[in-house]
Write a structure and sequence with these properties.
The chain has 6 helices and 8 strands; from the N terminus they run αβαβββαβαβαβαβ. It has 206 residues and is an alpha/beta fold. It has one domain (11-19, 27-203): Alpha-Beta Horseshoe (Leucine-rich repeat, LRR (right-handed beta-alpha superhelix)). Strand 6 (137-141), helix 5 and strand 7 (168-172) form a beta-alpha-beta unit.
Length: 206
């Protein structure tokens, strides 16, 4: 399902989609592209989490939420009466959904241009992926996530080390200006333990 640049699409649309997904327990492949849908917020991600929880047969998942600027960033929360980074809340919802999909073999997550995505978000993503024991191919896109640092890659490194049967890995950190040599070392440290790998793509350029 490709809905990119649908600027009038809101959380209500994702809520309706989630209700539909709850009835598709036999679904094996899911591709959702909401790139640049600027009215989707973390509330839409919460609805999506509820829709994914029944997809026990899912083998392949491809999510693109790049440039969804209402999901990311700091906004004033009337719950706590302070500014809050809603990227973390959105990633928590997605992480809670992913870690329950134990049959997944192929996973592609695109967070391109989540400018306020931080190391804790990468950690949440890594912890969720760690639960996917059947995973064979992984692609993560964090291009232009300018607040990811060495600490985020260190956490991701810990999560990747357990995937003994991973065949393909594609990691994209183009435009992440805070990544240093130490961050690259963290990634290569995990890759050398993945003895069944047949394909590696590591993008740190522009």
């Amino acid at each position: 399902m490709i809905m990119n640049r649908c600027e009038l699409l809101t959380d209500g649309g994702l809520k309706a989609l989630a209700r539909g997904l709850e009835r598709m327990s036999s679904l094996e492949a899911l591709n959702l592209n909401f790139s640049s849908c600027k009215k989707i917020t973390d509330k839409g991600m919460r609805s999506l989490k509820k829709g994914l929880r029944r997809l026990s047969s899912l083998r392949s998942m491809d999510f693109n939420f790049s440039s969804c600027f209402q999901i990311i960033g700091w906004r004033f929360s009337y719950e706590t009466w302070r500014y809050k980074n809603f990227s973390i809340r959105a990633m928590n919802y997605l992480g809670q959904a992913i870690k329950r999909l134990g049959s997944l073999r192929f996973l592609n997550l695109n967070f391109d241009s989540w400018h306020e995505l931080t190391d804790p978000c990468v950690n949440i993503c890594g912890k969720a992926i760690r639960r996917l024991c059947s995973l064979r191919a992984l692609k993560l896109v964090f291009n232009n996530c300018r607040n990811i640092t060495v600490k985020g890659l260190k956490n991701l490194n810990k999560s990747l080390k357990g995937f003994n049967y991973l065949r393909s890995i594609d990691l994209n950190f183009s435009g992440c200006g805070k990544i240093t040599d130490k961050g690259l070392n963290n990634i290569t440290d995990s890759l050398k333990e993945l003895s069944y790998l047949q394909y590696i793509n590591l993008n740190l350029g522009w």
